[in-house]
Amino acid sequence: MADPWLALEFGADPAERIAQVGAAHEAFLTGGAEPQLVREVVRHSWRRSAQALLDPEATAPVDLTDDALESYRAAHPLARVLPLFRDLLGGIAQDGAHLMAVCDAYGRLLWVEGHPGVLRHAERMNFVPGARWDEAHAGTNAPGTALAVDHSVQIFATEHFVRPVQRWTCAAAPIHDPATGRLLGAVDITGGDHLANPQSLALVRATARAAEAVLAQPLDPDVVTVSALGRDEAELRVGGRRIRLGRRHSELLVLLIDHPEGRTGEQLGLDLYGDDRLHPVTLRAELSRLRRALGPELLDSRPYRLRGTVHADFRTVTELLDRGDPAGALQAYGGPLLPGSDAPGVTRLRRLIDGQLRAAVLATADPALLAAWTATPAGSDDLTAWQALARALPPGAPRRPLAVARANQLSLEYDLPRATFLQRPRN
C-alpha cells in the first residue's frame, strides 16, 4: 500500500503530476470543485486554507524580528537541539539546492538555514525566521500541514495552496516534548521537485525522533527541572533522577521556586496553611522530609531556599509573558498550577499566572491563541474569551459556530444577555 504522506508514488512522472494537481487547484479555487487526483491530506488542507479565507496569492506574515525574535528563539525548547538539526541536516542545507527550517507549534519559523543563493529566493516568499507558516497564514505547506495533522508529510509543487510557493517542494515532521507529549514544532527541508522522494521524508522523520531523544535527556546533572502545571503533584528531575512529590511537598517546592531569595518558616507556614492554621512543628517536619527527597545539597535553611539552577514550567510561562510573548507563554502553559491545591500562596500564584496569561491572549485578538486558551481548563468557561474568539473568526470559519454557541451557552448560564453580534437572526 502506498504511503499517503509521500507526494509521489514510485514511477510517477513529476511533470505530469504537477500539471494534474495544478489543474485541480485552479478548479478548486475558481469553482469550488471537489479536488480530483489529489491526496487526501492535501485535499483537506486546501479546504482548511480556503475556510481561513486565505488569498491564494498571499505572502506569509512576519511576526517577530530582531531582538524579539532572538529572545523568543533563545527561550524556545527547540534551541537545545539546534546543533543536532545542523549536524543531521547541515550538509543538505549547504548543498546549494535545499534549506533546513525549524518552526514552533504555531508555524512561526525559528531558523531557516542553507546556501545564500537559495535563501535569497526563499526570502521572496517570506520563508524567513519570524514568519508564520501555519496553514491559516501560508496555506498548505509541509511544516504548517505537519503541525495541523500532527504527522510527517511531503508537499509537492502545485500541492501548495498559495501560488508563489508552488515552485518549491518540502518535507517536514512534528516534534513533541517527550515528557508531556506537547507539540513543540516541526523540522523541515525545502527545495526543488527532486525532494519528492521517500528519502527526504525518512530524513526529517529520523531527525525529529533524534531531537525528541535528546530532549528526553536531563539538561545537566546540576540543573533541577520542575513540572507543576496541569498536575496535582509536581515532578522533579535532578541528576538523572525523576522524583514525583506528594501534594504538600509539591506546594512547598512551588513556593520556594517562586521566592528564590528564600522564605522564613513563618512565611512558608502562612503561604501553606493560612493565618489560622499555622503549625510550626508540622511545617518543620514537612521541610525535613522534603530535604530528604531532594537531597541535602538542594535545600538550604535560614532562610529556606533552593540551591543551584532550577527550571520550572510555570516560571517559563511568566518569563515569556514578561518578554511580551503570549504565544510562547501559551505554548509553554500545561494547565493551572497544582490545580488541586488550596494552599493560600499557591492559590494566589495560580490565579496570577492564569490571569496574566488570559489578559495577554485577549489583548492579541489572535484566533489561534484564543482557540488555544479556550481549550485549557482555565479558559473553557471563559465567556469573554469565547466572545473574543467569535469576533476574531471570519464568518466562514468552521470553528465560528462552535464559538458563538459556546458564548451564548455561557451567557445563559451566567444569566447575562447575549451579545447582539452573537444572537441568531430571527425568522
UniProtKB/TrEMBL annotation:
GO molecular function terms noted in the UniProt entry:
DNA binding
Record's keyword annotation contains Nucleotide-binding: no
A Pfam family per the record = GAF
A single BP term in Gene Ontology = regulation of DNA-templated transcription
InterPro entries attached to this UniProt entry: GAF, GAF-like_dom_sf, OmpR/PhoB-type_DNA-bd
UniProt keyword DNA-binding, yes or no? yes
Q: Which residues form the OmpR/PhoB-type domain?
A: 240-306
Record key words, sorted:
DNA-binding
Give the Gene3D superfamilies listed for this entry. 3.30.450.40
**Under which name does UniProt file this protein?**
OmpR/PhoB-type domain-containing protein
